[in-house]
Prior knowledge:
With 210 residues, the protein is mostly beta strands. It has helices at residues 27-40, 91-103; strands at residues 9-13, 16-19, 57-62, 65-69, 72-76, 113-120, 125-128, 140-146, 149-153, 163-167, 172-175, 184-186, 200-207. It has a single domain, classed as Sandwich (Jelly Rolls), CATH 2.60.120.590. It contains 2 helices and 13 strands; from the N terminus they run E-E-H-E-E-E-H-E-E-E-E-E-E-E-E. It is globular. The relative contact order is 0.22.
Amino acid sequence: MLFSDEENNIVIAEDAYLLKGFLLGQGEPLLLALSNVILQAPLRHMVTPGGYNMSVAMTNCGDWGWVTDETGYRYSLRDPVTNNPWPVMPEIFKKLAIDAAKSVGFNHFEPDACLINQYSVGSKLSLHQDKDEVDFSHPIVSFSFGLPAMFDFGGIKREMPKIAILLEHGDVLVWGGRSRLNFHGVRSIKAGEHPLLGPFRFNITFRCSH
């Protein structure tokens, strides 16, 4: 574990945690691994079932990748653009995701899907649930890099109250159990320049899809 100090683990809801700075000190190997994945499976703006282009550019690595098009949301073994299998999930990604989950009590997390989102200034992710997975007993683990973002974390119903959480470079969110299907989203990214990633925010999300 990178941090043994429990003060860095902040409870944001039942079975949901913010791990402040959990990834700091691992930036260079993580960002190198990220670049290698994007070279193999370039970022793209996928189309929603409603026919809209997502403002967030994305790609995947791991056994399964999350995709969306006019036919719906789903996990796919292959990149629909190239028909190739998704790049292998980098070992450092998987290890740190498992370590983060263990640090807050999710001891059997073995992600098979890794979603990579690139936010440019002005892009956002509307309030939604992560419910395309087969088994909701596994948590979601989410890494943040680059520009800061305001993350809204709500309840099991869309209209329930939300809390706003500032996510900064190196932070990790983990949520599962009683909060696994809570609504969440990312507000529009404000203009800025990160010393490593320029005018972008990257979010790397780990899931057990099957």
